[in-house]
User: What shape does this take?
Amino acid sequence: LRGYDYTRRGAYFVTICTKERRRVFGTVVNGRMALNDAGRMIHTVWDELPAYYPGVATDAFVVMPDHVHGVVWLCDAGSAAGAGPSACPCPCRSAAGQARGPAPAVMALADVVHRFKSLTTHRYIDGVGNHGWPRFPGTLWHRNYYDIIVRDATALANICAYIRNNPAHWDVMRYGEPRFMMGNRALLDLPKTAFLASRGAHTARAPRDRYPAPACIISGFLSPMERVVFEEGLDAGTPMVQQSCRRVSTLPLTQGCCW
Assistant: This one.
């Protein structure tokens, strides 16, 4: 916000994106974020910010494949260092360690973001060298960031809900529909037999004792023969996964129902 003093006490909703929106922190599975080692490192650094920088407290936070959302509070340095919530309206926590060098009594939001980026970039580079994390050309993070000044408790509650639900909305925002499983997800752990038949395939029922019963059948159940198999599977109590993805050749388990 032009002309706004970003050292003022209060809450700020911050979004930071990776350079070129590279997906380096994990993936969304069934509406939940599955963090890789780099993603867990990002979350750890966020949680450690209050311990390193007096006057900074963290609130709701989520790591997504190519960006992070978080609420950061700028407080009185004394309250964030252990004076407690009575001295500051934010969720302050006692410092768990010593700051790395002198920290200012009052930090601007841009300083907090800059130090978050610096710490995470340094640790990511260590991960590349020591653990084989994917390399990044140029910089890890996008040059700038997005911020929203949190004006009141209602806005804070809405923002925290948005952050909390962001993984569940990931596929909806990108594909216009959810792409997570419905039904008994335990079936995904069973050995699965894929069944695909063209529309012109013969639909005569085969003797059930001719073939061994599969642990679980996965199919689109669209063609006549596939529907016959589906009906027989229901009669026999065979676990089945209906795959509704259009790209049958790769068969990614992105959307479907389980019985």
Residues 171 and 178 are 5 Å apart (CA to CA). The longest strand covers residues 10-17.
